[in-house]
Amino acid sequence: FTRISYNSCRNRHCPKCQTVNKERWIEARKADLLNVGYFHVVFTLPDLLNPIACHNPQILYDLLFKAAAETLTELAADKKYLGAQIGFTSILHTWGQNLMHH
Fold it and tell me: How far apart (Å, rounded) are the C-alpha atoms in residues 59 and 49?
């Protein structure tokens, strides 16, 4: 992965300047993964809760993470779905693809 980029802005979100670094990062993360199935699950808050998130982010996001963890754990433990104890990583994203807060 080598690419010369003249007049680089060095912004980590720039597809021109950071594509090579992004690909390197992805390859490095692949080496960290276990040889098991992975699923991407998204929990979204309704827009109606945005004012609460702005004024009480710690409380609201703590509740979101707790509810998401309980939901995933309970569903995975059910023999009807997976019948297993799972592990997961939770990440909070408060912006969209256009990097605007949402």
Answer: 12
